[in-house]
Specification:
By secondary structure, this protein is mostly helical. The protein folds into two domains: 40 residues; 211 residues, MetI-like fold, CATH 1.10.3720. The chain is built from eleven helices and no strands. Helix 4 crosses helix 6. The longest helix has 40 residues. The radius of gyration is 26 Å and the shape is flat.
């Protein structure tokens, strides 16, 4: 039992439930551990990486120490970050096209089952076909290099948006659809006021997946193009560093790609939280 004193008047005792206090402590520990534990593990992994290099006297062209990689990242910042901008531009453009095309086609699918049955198998074919198998054809039929990379990254990022949004649009409670019909709502009104809000969590989940896949698609396409000397993104720096046995630059480029993926995921998660945190159950649970 605990009491709260108010100046000038006596306050009634406030009873703090032991179970509620335990839950509050657990929530505080969880909030702290969500950031602290990954940092501890990462620091331990970097220390272990450095010690392996020292204990085994591994040459830097095979496995550089973390400090060497950091110095390389600083010294080659101009070269690496200019290549990062190329990769990032392809990633964001392909993601934007995937959102536009995936959501638009999903809406079309919900308006006509015949269109969905006709076109959805082709989307599956694009998803399951490796991008390295498609790129030679794209290389033959498309002249502009940026368009080639953009198309490859879009193919990889497109399906999660399409699949998740279509699932969300088709998962609306049938009773609510019947209620809208009884009140004379048009297809557009039902779509705008019922289906799209209900599909938002599914779309945002697909968006977080597509963000990482867009980056992967851009890097893979740059790898394929880089072997022919047709790319200036981060993948081309990795290929160049591999040929020259410049392991520190190779690791620095890999770290930049990883950090870029993390930033994309965190940004899309933040956007998802902003959209959902006031009304959707999945986001409300995270705040409790």
């Amino acid at each position: 039992m605990a009491t709260i004193d108010t100046p000038g008047r006596a306050a009634p005792p406030v009873v703090i439930d032991a179970e509620e206090a335990r839950r509050e402590r657990s929530r505080r520990l969880e909030r702290t551990g969500r950031w602290l534990l990954p940092l501890i593990i990462m620091a331990a992994a970097i220390w272990f990486w450095d010690r392996i290099c020292v204990w085994n006297e591994i040459p830097r062209y095979i496995l550089p120490r973390p400090g060497v990689v950091l110095n390389t990242l600083i010294e080659d910042a101009g070269l690496l970050f200019s290549s990062l901008l190329v990769t990032l531009r392809i990633t964001l453009l392909s993601l934007a096209l995937a959102v536009f095309g995936g959501v638009g086609l999903s809406v079309l699918f919900t308006q006509s089952r015949w269109i969905e049955m006709s076109l959805f198998p082709f989307a599956i074919v694009l998803q399951v076909t490796p991008i390295v198998a498609i790129f030679p054809l794209i290389n033959i039929y498309v002249d502009d290099q940026t368009t080639k990379l953009l198309l490859c990254a879009w193919i990889v990022a497109f399906f999660p948006i399409l699949s998740n949004t279509t699932l969300g649009l088709n998962s609306v409670d049938r009773n609510l659809i019947d209620y809208f019909r009884l009140n004379g709502a048009t297809r557009w009104q039902t779509l705008w006021h019922l289906r799209l809000p209900a599909a938002m969590p599914y779309f945002l989940g697909g968006l977080k997946i597509a963000g990482g896949l867009a980056l992967i698609g851009a890097v893979v396409a740059e790898f394929v193009a880089g072997t022919a000397g047709q790319s200036s993104g981060l993948a081309s720096r990795i290929i160049e560093a591999g040929y020259r046995l410049n392991a520190p630059r190779l690791f620095a480029a890999l770290i930049l790609i990883s950090l870029t993926g993390i930033v994309i995921f965190l940004t899309l998660s933040w956007i998802s939280h902003l959209v959902l945190h006031r009304w959707h159950e999945s986001a409300l649970k995270q705040e409790q």
